[in-house]
Amino acid sequence: MVKAVERQYTGPADLRAMQSLAERIWSPASHCHVGDLAWQRFEHVGREPAWRTRLWEADGQVVAWGWAEAGHLSLLVDPAWPELAGSVLDWASPSEVKVLDGEKHVITALERRGFQVASDAPFHHYMSRSLAEVPSPALPDGFVARPAGSADVDRRVEVHRAAWHPSRVTVESYRNVMAAWPYRGSLDWVVEAPDGRFAAYCLIWLDAVNSVAELEPVGTDPAFRGMGLATAVCLAAMRAASEAGAEQAIVYPVDGYPAVKLYQGLGFTPYARTFTYRRP
Ligand SMILES: CC(C)(COP(=O)(O)OP(=O)(O)OC[C@H]1O[C@@H](n2cnc3c(N)ncnc32)[C@H](O)[C@@H]1OP(=O)(O)O)[C@@H](O)C(=O)NCCC(=O)NCCS
């Protein structure tokens, strides 16, 4: 039996290896898409010193990783190596861990260590939609949906910051996002208003191995909400993802937020949810 070897994270090549694990074990029972790691690692700058990241490898590939910040731990463990869930938990010693309901090997390791479900914690609905047929977007007169290019980065960042105010996304951090694998400019869509402002956006990350497109993130400037623009830009981006080979789209809105209604209206249905486990 091969033994997994653990080591510290050393840089971007390791992030790519962590994404390879996400790609290799992706299923409706896995919480992590390749796009999650790219977005979460690059959406802000200056956070690296607060992160601890560790990898477990066997047979030349990553079979588990943990990414800890303060008391929180994000972990991904190959279900073929269930015992490593305990190794990652023991290394990070977190107070709180969010898992998907299907990650049974991780849940088992948490429960063995006395963690309990925090029933008051917010949770994410994991929702999916087939991309076999995606309707054409309908836009108000004068509004245009199109992919954002590298020349648009200032306006691209402005619309994100308006939607998520207060936001720590900057032109510098967004350039890092655009440079991250598997970012594709052809899947980063905006709606441009008649006055040239970007009013809404939808960034899609494509896992080309599993043909799964993740919407992360989506937003509309508050000045343009309720006009159907998020609906339109998501449809436009999903059509582009379908043309690029995606068969399924996924998204993870937080329960109780308006975005749940947006995605329901777009034909997404829930297939899983997260649970937060806390150490008593
Ligand atoms: C969620 C968000 C993208 C919606 O943008 P929008 O352009 O106003 O959305 P649309 O006009 O296309 O509306 C889509 C649907 O959501 C509903 N909706 C939008 N905002 C809503 C709100 N505040 N309360 C209730 N329903 C709302 C609309 O009524 C519409 O449903 P309908 O088709 O049944 O009429 C926007 O509020 C936003 O940017 N929020 C902050 C960022 C965010 O949460 N992003 C999503 C993360 S997963």
CATH homologous superfamily (4th level) name of the largest domain: Gcn5-related N-acetyltransferase (GNAT)
Broad CATH class of the largest domain: Alpha Beta
Main beta sheet: 13 strands, mixed
Cα-to-Cα separation, first versus last residue: 35 Å
Domain module count: 2
Cα Rg? 19 Å
Mean pLDDT: 98
Shape: globular
How many H/I helices? 8
H-E order: EHHEEEHEHEEEHHEEEHEHE
Percent of residues in β-strands: 25-35%
CATH architectural type of the largest domain: 3-Layer(aba) Sandwich
Uncertain runs are: none
Bound molecules: coenzyme A
Class by alpha and beta content = alpha+beta
| Helical residue percent band | 25-40%
At the fold tier of CATH, the topology name of the largest domain is: Aminopeptidase
Query: Care to count the β-strands?
Result: 13
Task: Explain the layout of strands and helices.
Blueprint: E1 5-8, H1 12-24, H2 34-42, E2 51-58, E3 61-69, E4 72-77, H3 83-92, E5 96-100, H4 104-112, E6 116-117, E7 125-130, E8 144-147, H5 153-163, H6 171-179, E9 188-192, E10 198-207, E11 212-220, H7 229-243, E12 248-251, H8 258-265, E13 269-278
Parallel strand pairs: 4-5, 11-12
Antiparallel strand pairs: 1-2, 2-3, 3-4, 5-13, 6-13, 7-12, 7-13, 8-9, 9-10, 10-11
Helix pairs in contact: 1-2, 2-6, 3-4
Coenzyme A binds at residues 163-164, 200, 217-220, 225-231, 253, 257-259, 261-262, 265.
